[in-house]
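Design job #97: recover the sequence.
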């Protein structure tokens, strides 16, 4: 099968013109020298003299921006106000003796404002520098992504038309790409340079503002923003005015709608801080308009995928930068396939706002009603995500990785792999998705080319009747699988809801309403922080999905008599697996389940881990949680570390099917959702509420504290096994028991007769009913008791730091028999990294 797309796809890197060093070193060097000269001299498109957009790269650019920015009355007023506040903060006596005069404080404050502006703003003044950087990127991209950078001609034409319109009206293009890799920054700027579009001012984290490199990036268009600026009203005012200045002058702007790189392969929820700085000036009339340009960036292979897995497993994040990634010798020696960049249809932000306001009726007023303004801003954020998903390209690596992770069994033969890839391509395109252009090559050729790109993640046996492929590093391969799930999320939710009945009886018939509908509502609501659903609303999406699965012969709609005790005597519609789907072994139905099961399992892990948040002493219901005892509260970071260890433990004991479900990012989303649902209470402060020893905590170091909502606490739990304290770096031995009979202490006697109940266990059971069952799970009658018992042991974990001398003193202060499981204990992090390739 040959795969082709409507509309022409072309590579912008001129890779064939440059050639390959390894094939012909002399020819490569000659062509490289000639290419360098053309960039330096600025011939043809390399001159970057006829770009579309407001004027950039001229000597006075930075000074002109700074002059207009500092002339803003709001900045001067805020600076003077803070100086006056500092002046009044001095005591009367201090002002008389040696206090600073108000004028001196105002001058110092204004100097500080200038420093913020200098560190923040882009400084696009040198065209020679940007040509040099384009030359570097042209050859770097050729080396890393040997199959080129591809865009669609029709999308480029639409972008060019929007850019010409924006230039004529002196408005900005707002580029809003997804964020997959550190090299997104350079790739986007290189593409726009190559296409002759005005380069944008690019929002970059201040972690990139390092000596020499930081200045270089500023001169290429980067402006630096703090990761958080919270209550810093001065910084917020300067940033707001800087955005207004760029918008008034019609300069293009770029920032990542997700705020950070996606480490799971799928789109993250939108971060609205930067978007708000674009949205409000147009809404409030400070700026006339801006053109929104959502963008998708797809990589055959992401350079940082291995480090992403380490972070998701809970390994402390290493400080890394774009240049550390690009400078790695191992990276520069590899070939990562191709990059596909897609532009969604540009649209006017002003027109979008007007359409949304009219659609919501006359009572909707985002200008004067803050809640309405936030609603509209959030709608814009999700619209951008939807636009990015609509043009996103599914790469060959994602196709192969998805098939390997959605089939039962140890592996798959080459012919069967090609057959399933063809099926997946057809299903993606049927849903309006985009698959990378195969350039006339057959699916078999593409599969054969993709396998070597994933050689570290996929195993292969060639000493059999036919080549057999199997997943080796499932966790890292899941990053590629997750690039597909947004296209099938409706089917995934419905399949998981149906699975809770089908798993015990393949011919089970499930009443569509209310049973299947209510289960789907529950799953959809539970996972709302993970996925972007269709804008038609849940009921419409549900009915459409039921119809589509039936049309695809995956399921069948049948009529069944009403259940006993039903209020109606009419026949009811039910859903069941079709006869054909049962004949082929649930192959297509399982595909949808395999896509979503890892996410469901993560949310089940999050829910079951809340048993470790339950305090020892009974608590009374309290809406705010402020009446809880201090020991009911746990620092968020400590609790997350506990959950990671707990998750790994029950995975290796066989109570979880997917190691990628022990995933820090998805767990954070799960806990956010459980907080929204009222299971978790949060408090931010130096110490927990009602603490009598607040002085023992670090001053000015606010911590996020978590507690289980009292109404979700279970009663009658057996006491956790009285295990001894375990000191970091010390091997466990018999003498560590300190006189405790170890075998008796860890016995199940107290837990065997225990039967879980209560709201929390009901929630765990509800989520668990949609999980995968099979050979990777210990499906026994005591599984619930065993897992809760481990969760209660986890409740006793604490964090103790210090040397061996002070450690002993600290341990004496702890409660007796408290289990010490520190970060890195039993080399948990290192072990996970080593085992990653075997899971």
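Job complete. Output follows.
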């Amino acid at each position: 099968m040959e795969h082709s797309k409507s509309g022409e796809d072309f590579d912008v890197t001129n890779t064939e013109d440059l050639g390959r060093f390894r094939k012909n070193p002399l020819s490569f060097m000659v062509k490289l020298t000639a290419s360098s000269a053309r960039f330096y001299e600025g011939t043809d498109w390399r001159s970057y003299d006829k770009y579309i957009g407001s004027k950039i790269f001229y000597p006075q650019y930075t000074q002109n921006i700074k002059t207009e920015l500092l002339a803003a009355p709001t900045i001067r007023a805020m600076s003077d106000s803070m100086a006056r506040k500092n002046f009044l903060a001095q005591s009367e006596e201090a002002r008389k003796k040696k206090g600073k005069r108000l004028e001196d404080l105002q001058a110092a404050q204004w100097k500080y404002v200038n420093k913020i502006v200098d560190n923040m703003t882009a400084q696009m003044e040198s065209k020679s520098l940007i040509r040099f950087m384009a030359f570097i990127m042209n050859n770097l991209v050729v080396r890393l992504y040997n199959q080129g950078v591809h865009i669609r001609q029709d999308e480029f034409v639409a972008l060019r038309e929007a850019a010409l319109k924006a230039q004529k009206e002196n408005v900005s293009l707002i580029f809003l790409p997804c964020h997959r890799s550190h090299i997104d920054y350079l790739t986007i700027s290189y593409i726009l340079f190559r296409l002759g579009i005005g380069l944008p001012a690019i929002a970059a984290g201040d972690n990139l503002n390092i000596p020499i490199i930081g200045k270089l990036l500023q001169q290429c268009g980067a402006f630096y923003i703090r990761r958080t600026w919270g209550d810093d009203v001065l910084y917020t005012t300067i940033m707001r005015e800087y955005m207004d200045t760029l918008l008034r002058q019609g300069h293009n702007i770029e920032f990542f709608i997700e705020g950070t790189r996606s480490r799971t392969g799928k789109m993250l929820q939108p971060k609205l801080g930067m978007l708000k700085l674009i949205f409000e000036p147009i809404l409030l009339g400070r700026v006339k308009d801006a053109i929104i340009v959502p963008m998708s960036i797809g990589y055959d292979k992401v350079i940082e995928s291995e480090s992403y897995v380490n972070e998701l497993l809970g390994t402390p994040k290493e400080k890394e930068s774009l240049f550390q990634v690009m400078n790695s010798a191992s990276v520069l020696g590899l070939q990562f396939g191709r990059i596909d960049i897609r532009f969604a249809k540009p649209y006017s932000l002003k027109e979008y706002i007007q359409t949304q306001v009219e659609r919501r009726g006359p009572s909707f007023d985002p200008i004067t009603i803050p809640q309405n303004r936030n609603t509209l801003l959030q709608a814009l954020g999700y619209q951008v995500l939807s636009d990015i998903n609509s043009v996103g390209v599914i790469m060959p690596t994602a196709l192969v990785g998805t098939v390997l992770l959605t089939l039962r069994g140890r592996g798959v033969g080459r012919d069967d792999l090609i057959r399933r890839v063809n099926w997946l391509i057809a299903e993606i395109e049927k849903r309006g998705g985009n698959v990378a252009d195969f350039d006339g090559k057959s699916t078999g050729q593409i599969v054969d080319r993709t396998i070597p790109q994933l050689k570290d993640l996929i195993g292969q046996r060639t000493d059999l009747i036919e080549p057999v492929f199997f997943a080796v590093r499932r966790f890292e391969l899941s990053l590629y699988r997750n690039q597909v799930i947004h296209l099938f999320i409706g089917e995934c939710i419905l399949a998981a809801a149906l699975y809770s009945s089908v798993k015990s009886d393949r011919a089970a018939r499930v009443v569509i309403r209310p049973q299947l509908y209510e289960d789907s509502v529950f799953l959809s609501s539970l996972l709302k922080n993970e996925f972007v659903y269709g804008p038609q609303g849940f009921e419409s999406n549900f009915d459409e999905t039921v119809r589509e699965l039936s049309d695809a012969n995956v399921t069948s709609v049948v009529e069944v008599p009403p259940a006993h005790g039903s209020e109606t005597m009419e026949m009811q519609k039910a859903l069941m697996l079709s006869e054909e789907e049962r004949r082929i072994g649930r192959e297509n139905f399982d595909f949808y389940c395999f896509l979503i099961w890892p996410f469901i399992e993560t949310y089940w892990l999050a829910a079951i881990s809340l048993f470790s948040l339950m305090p020892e002493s009974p608590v009374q219901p309290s809406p705010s949680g402020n009446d809880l005892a201090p020991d009911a509260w746990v620092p968020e970071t400590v609790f997350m570390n506990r959950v990671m260890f707990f998750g790994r433990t029950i995975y290796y004991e066989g109570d979880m099917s997917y190691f990628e479900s022990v995933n820090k990012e998805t767990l954070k989303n799960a806990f956010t959702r459980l907080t929204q649902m009222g299971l978790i209470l949060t408090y931010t402060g130096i110490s927990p509420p009602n603490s009598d020893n607040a002085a023992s905590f670090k001053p000015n170091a606010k911590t996020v504290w978590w507690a289980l909502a009292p109404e979700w606490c279970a009663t009658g739990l057996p006491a956790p096994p009285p295990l001894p304290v375990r000191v970091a770096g010390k091997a466990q031995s018999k003498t560590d028991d300190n006189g405790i009979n170890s075998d008796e202490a860890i016995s199940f006697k107290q837990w065997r007769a225990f039967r879980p109940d209560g709201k929390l266990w009901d929630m765990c059971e509800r989520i668990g009913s949609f999980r995968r069952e099979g050979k990777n799970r210990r499906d026994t009658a005591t599984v619930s008791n065993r897992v809760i018992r481990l969760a209660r042991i986890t409740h006793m974990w604490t964090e103790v730091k210090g040397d061996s001398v002070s450690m002993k003193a600290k341990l004496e202060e702890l409660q007796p028999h408290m289990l010490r499981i520190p970060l890195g204990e039993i080399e948990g992090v290192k072990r996970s990294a080593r085992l990653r390739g075997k899971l």
